C-alpha cells in the first residue's frame, strides 16, 4: 500500500535562459509510462522547459540512451522514466540495480538526471506512483532534473553536452566505486 505521508517539495527553479530536457522512457508498461510522461511534461512546462521524448525497450536501456544523447545532442537535463515490477526471478534485482547505478554514474559525470524509474512490487503500487494527480513520480523526476540544471548553471557549468570530461569517465567512476585501482 502506498503511504500518504506528505513530503516537502522544493519550489521549481526559475531560469533566465531556455532549458531543454530529454525524457527517456521505457514504455514496457504503457499506461504507467504514459502517466509518468504526462507528469514530467506538466512539470517541465510549469518551469518553462522545452521537452523532447524518446522511447527505449526497457529500463536497462535508459542510461545508455541518456549517455548517447549527452555525447551527441544539446540537452541541459534528462528525465529517466519507466517501471520495473517484481516478478518470479532475480531479473527484477538486476534491472533495478543496474538502471539506477547507470543513472547515478551519469549524474556523477555531471549530467542533470532525474530518476523516475519506478521499482515496485505490483501494478497497483506503480499506478499510484505514476498518477499525475497522485504521487506524480514523473513530475518529481522532471523537477529533480530541473533543480540539477539550475545548480549546474549556478556553478557555471553545463551538464556536459557534446562530450565527457575524461576525469569523469563512467568506466573509471564505476571502478572507483567498486574499489578498483585500475584505470
From TrEMBL:
| Binding-site residues for 5-amino-6-(D-ribitylamino)uracil, renumbered to this chain | 28, 59-61, 83-85, 115
Give me the reactions it catalyses.
(2S)-2-hydroxy-3-oxobutyl phosphate + 5-amino-6-(D-ribitylamino)uracil = 6,7-dimethyl-8-(1-D-ribityl)lumazine + phosphate + 2 H2O + H(+)
Keyword flag Transferase: yes
Looking up Gene3D superfamilies in the UniProt record yields: Lumazine/riboflavin synthase (3.40.50.960)
The family classification in the record reads:
Belongs to the DMRL synthase family.
Function statement = Catalyzes the formation of 6,7-dimethyl-8-ribityllumazine by condensation of 5-amino-6-(D-ribitylamino)uracil with 3,4-dihydroxy-2-butanone 4-phosphate. This is the penultimate step in the biosynthesis of riboflavin.
Task: Spell out the protein name for this chain.
Answer: 6,7-dimethyl-8-ribityllumazine synthase
Which species does the entry assign this protein to? Paracoccus saliphilus
